[in-house]
Amino acid sequence: MDPDVILFWVVAVLSVASALTAVLHRNPVYCALALVMALFQVAVMFVALDAHLIALLQVIVYAGAIVVLFLFVIMLLSLEPDAPPRGRYGMRAASIMIAVVLGVEIGTAALISEPGAPFRVPFDFGSTRMVAQSLFTEHLLPFELTSVLLLVAMIGAVVMARRRA
Amino acid sequence: MNPYAALLINAALCGLVATILLFMSRILGRRRPSKVKYEIFETGNPPIGSLRGTRFPVKFYLTAILFIIFDIEIVFMYPWAVAYRELGWFGLAEMAAFMGILAVGLAYIWRVGALEWD
Amino acid sequence: MDVIISFCTALVALLICLQVTVLLLWIERKGSALIQDRVGANRANLFGGLLPFNLGIVNTMMADPLKLLTKEDIVPAAADRLLHWLAPWVAVFPLFLTFAVVPFGDVIVVGGREINLQAVALSGGILFVLAMVSLGVYGVIVGGWASNSRYAFLGSVRGSAQMISYEIAMGLALVSVVLTYGTLDLQEIARLQGRLMWGVVPAWGVFYQPIAFVLLFIAGIAESKRAPFDLPEAESELVAGFQTEYSGSKMSMFMMSDFIEVAIIAALTTTLFFGGWQVPFLYRDGFHFPGGLTVAIPSLIVTLLQIVSFLVKVFVFCWIQILIRWSLPRLRYDQLMAFGWKKLLPVGLANVAASAVLGLLLEGWTRT
After folding, report:
1. Could you read off the pLDDT of B61-79 as tens digits, one per residue?
2. Which residues from chain C sit within 8 angstroms of residue B37, using beta carbons?
3. What is the pTM for the complete model shown?
4. Which of A1, A120, C138, C265 has its CA 20 to 30 A from that of C157?
């Protein structure tokens, strides 16, 4: 069997399982850790798609920083494990229906669509140098806007945190 | 050989060694359960109140958010640093604008006192 | 065949990691004894003193781990069982893996094959190290939370806040290094330091980025929560911080993570700033001294010299970290955070800016 196919199936099963755990488990700390696992699987998929830089950045930023923030919030708010849901059947029915509709849509789209014509990628596709060249020439505006976005986030976080104090 | 395959081999080896270490005490150590051993340590007194109800200062949360923001900034710097000579002075100017805006942000949070008392 | 070679290099890297850790345990005890003008650990003996001579270091190195591993494993009743077992594993696994990208030699020529002495030749090596350091925070967070104890939780929250604060300084120091060498690959950086400046001085990273060296070293010490930054696990204040409720091999894994981080910081510093496995004037075929003198040396001896040089440099930096631990008083927590955010972060940013400008002004400044 092609190792790529085996890898894909392992990663797919693990990522769906960890994502389901992240959504359905009652203990929020377990959910956050399952989220880390799911993000790892995404990083592996990035590697399989030759996006080496993005895979590493996924681990550094997402799994290494953002979920740490989630864990801080969970622990500092001392969130209790969820009690089993009572009543409110209307919400649950609606959400299940929406999930089913979405699932059918995605499944149909995946099954009907045909793969595009294969095209060659350059030798160092996805390498840091290529990303840098592209980021700082063609995509300069989004890059500079990102800095403004980060500035806004910084100021917003400080304002919100200090108001609570 | 694909470096990621080597990474997988390494990860498997390290995971195996870590797991063996983890279970060593269970295998080699004694089992003499007694009630006192399983209490939480609080210098002899029974623990007061539950951990789940305690509140903690918000500055830890603020530190985590500021960490994310600066982490993202650093992460943007890496591709630039690798291709920095090809990008020349123009790349430096772009990066200077990026760092400048974030330096303004750092100055603001410093002035406002968000970096105090942690 | 490739798989076997890869497995062997992985095994060697892991063994180097484990051996350095165990040795560091003893070096710390004897070294601190030396600094504090006392004898240190010398009581361990085989067979209760039956032998007329004391094997010294061997006894302590065997006795300490054996003692820890054979203690009873206690999981507090109020603790979260799965997380309590998971936390030490999560603390140690990324650190073991970090050693996989550190090059401990150039190449070894065996049977006509050149084998790169680096377990995983990742082209994004530095980013991988940063990723593993980021994952190290989870061991602390989960460890403290799993114990469901106030001491442990407080220690873990402060510890993780400290770790993430100093990760930024580390990241900035590494950016300046990448600026200088133009590559993220650690083996490549080690190789690039083999050139000579003005024909005499080896082009080690510390001459190009002295500030980044100091920054990385300090941030690394703070990251591994060693003194003078060890308030989260301050022995006299928080019992053992987030490690309070762990016993036996789990506690030994947390202690190991401390020493492995010492070794990692030492290994990183040598690879990035002190030439890694480079011996000055030694090339793959022998010595080429500046005066013109050439000494031919068989390639296996060259490899051996390089590995020894790497290990010696790693131990020098481990020793410096031990010296720092036993000489400086502990920083208070707010001083610690102020130092990380208000001193190291601006210095790191300024260093990156200055290196970038200098690099463009002095056109031939390192690189190929």
Report:
1. 889 999 999 999 999 999 9
2. 72, 74
3. 0.90
4. C265
